[in-house]
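Ligand: 4'-deoxy-4'-aminopyridoxal-5'-phosphate. Inputs:
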Amino acid sequence: ADLDAETAALIARRQALLGPAYRLFYEKPLHLVRGEGAWLYDAAGEAYLDAYNNVTSVGHCHPKVVAAIAAQAGVLATHTRYLHAGVLDYAERLLATLPDEIGQMMFTCTGSEANDLAVRIARAFTGGTGIIVTETAYHGVTQAVAEFSPSLGPAVDLGVHVRTVPAPDSYREADVAGAFTASVEAAIADLTRHGIRPALFICDGIFASDGVFDGPAGFLQGAVAAIRAAGGLYIADEVQSGFGRTGDAMWGFQRHGVTPDIVTMGKPMGNGYPVAGVALRPEVVAEFGRKARYFNTFGGNAVAVAAATAVLDVIEGEGLVANARDVGAHLRDGLRGLAARHPCIGDVRGAGLFIGVEIVSDRAAKTPDPARTAAIVNGLRAERVLISACAKGANVLKIRPPLIFTREQADLLVARLDRVLGGL
Ligand code: PMP
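Predicted complex:
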């Protein structure tokens, strides 16, 4: 790409200082300097409509969250080895958003640490080691969690105790519930045949990296019953789908009418301040708690909890779950309107403000078109709208705007996508 001198210099400096393992978004990487609401601004002052960041989910630099962080940082910033009411008040409020069976929570700083802790707890409780995940799942960066994150690709070996199941592909599979349950049952049987006791089945509430699969509602029930029958736990990874994103409830798993044994969360929890955690059934952690000590220096610190509390205030105060539901439905309507005119759009799906648009080269054969998908993502960046792509075939547009997104912003996204599709 034709990069300006300043961008090229920053890229060279970054490669020299940060090394080879990092990746930038876009053929023409973005240099952002400021954010406000659903907008991001580059160094030249250009505005970009952010339809992708799932961390700053109540809007970039929300003044209430910024004020809460600043106020607490000016009073006390210490950890969970001292008594502090803030962390208890938050836990009480957060647990009230979850099913009654989920009665305790623990704090970490990242979603990866939350999943890592969830696995330790599940293994201590079940005595098993086996893990079942979907085939393009992502659950995090620690060694233990990377071993069951197949989306990291061939660079990371899946653990010998890990089995993958195909994504619940509602676009290609007529009986999603039946097929998904059968796959999880087959994975359990394969673990058992190899002398590995199943510890857990983990999935993200909307199968984000698998390609955004939201339904049909309830399809998870068979898989959850199967892992429990085998003595394992069901862990709901709500790092992406939690905190109202799916529009119908606070948590993605709720659409399926299932109650997890452990829920992991992170990303939008502090709207940019690192705060994450696990919420669980108390009986599941009892054994782990007897044997292990758990101390996470920054997890649940007073500033993190202040940020997280402010995020809950904003979600409730601004009615953001309902907004995600309404604006998300409006956005899907607009995208389905585009599908009527652009044959490369094979499917529009999702829940609330978590939307997947499947891009195909042949509608009848449903053939993934990753090259066109990448061209659309880069084309939208040129139109100053930010989204990304996901799925096994790298052919699903992943659209995940902040929960404060308006109908007008949704219309703008659709109009600019229309222009990009028309120009390809
Ligand atoms: N689980 C899911 C579903 C995620 O999307 C991510 C991050 N992309 C993680 C876990 C890991 O979270 P973190 O990057 O905060 O460690």
